[in-house]
C-alpha cells in the first residue's frame, strides 16, 4: 500500500524519477494509480513499465512482447506462420506476468493451459482468452511443448527452489 500511496501522492515524480519497472506483486494493482494506460496493458490488465511525462504517469506492458521475442526463435519455423501456433503451452501462475504471457500466446495461436495454486484465479484468466485451466498440482499430468514459469518461484535469491516437472 505504501508503494501505491507514494505513486498517487506524486512522491516518486518529485524525486526526479522519469520511469520505473513494476514487478511482483504490483503489476495489476498499479493500474489504479496511473493517469493513463496503453491499450495493450488495459487489455492484459497488468503494467510492468511506468513513464512520467509532464507530471502524468503512463503505464505500459512490455512483458507480452518480451515473452514472444524470447520463445519464438527457440521454437524455430512453423508452417502456420508463427512458431507458437498450435503449440501446447502450460503457464504456471495467474498474476501480472502470467496475464501478459497468456494474452500474447493466445494471440499467436498457442493452445494455452494455465495452472495456478488458486484455481479460481487461473479460471478467470483462462476464460478471458479461451484457455484451459487447472490446479498447479496437475502439472505432472500435462502434455506440453512449452512450459512458462510466471510465478515468483525460482526468483533470486531462492533460485534453487525451482524444480522442473
TrEMBL record:
Residue ranges annotated for the Quinate/shikimate 5-dehydrogenase/glutamyl-tRNA reductase domain, each copy included: 83-152
Residue ranges constituting the Shikimate dehydrogenase substrate binding N-terminal domain according to the UniProt record: 12-50
A molecular function (GO) term: shikimate 3-dehydrogenase (NADP+) activity
Transmembrane segments: none
Pfam families: Shikimate_DH, Shikimate_dh_N
GO terms under biological process: chorismate biosynthetic process; shikimate metabolic process
InterPro entries xref list: Aminoacid_DH-like_N_sf, NAD(P)-bd_dom_sf, Shikimate_DH-bd_N, Shikimate_DH_fam, Shikm_DH/Glu-tRNA_Rdtase
Protein name: Shikimate dehydrogenase
Organism: marine sediment metagenome
Amino acid at each position: 500500500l505504501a508503494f501505491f500511496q507514494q505513486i498517487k501522492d506524486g512522491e516518486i515524480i518529485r524525486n526526479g524519477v522519469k520511469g520505473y519497472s513494476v514487478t511482483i506483486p504490483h503489476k495489476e494493482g498499479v493500474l489504479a494509480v496511473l493517469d493513463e494506460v496503453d491499450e495493450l496493458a488495459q487489455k492484459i490488465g497488468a503494467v510492468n513499465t511506468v513513464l512520467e511525462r509532464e507530471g502524468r504517469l503512463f503505464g505500459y506492458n512490455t512483458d507480452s512482447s518480451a515473452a514472444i521475442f524470447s520463445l519464438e526463435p527457440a521454437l524455430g519455423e512453423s508452417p502456420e506462420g508463427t512458431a507458437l501456433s498450435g503449440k501446447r503451452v502450460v503457464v504456471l501462475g495467474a498474476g501480472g506476468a502470467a496475464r501478459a504471457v497468456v494474452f500474447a500466446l493466445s494471440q499467436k495461436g498457442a493452445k494455452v493451459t494455465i495452472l495456478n495454486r488458486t484455481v479460481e484465479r487461473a479460471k478467470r484468466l483462462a476464460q478471458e482468452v479461451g484457455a484451459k485451466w487447472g490446479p498447479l498440482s496437475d502439472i505432472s499430468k500435462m502434455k506440453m511443448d512449452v512450459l512458462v514459469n510466471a510465478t515468483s518461484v525460482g526468483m533470486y535469491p531462492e533460485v534453487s527452489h525451482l524444480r522442473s516437472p
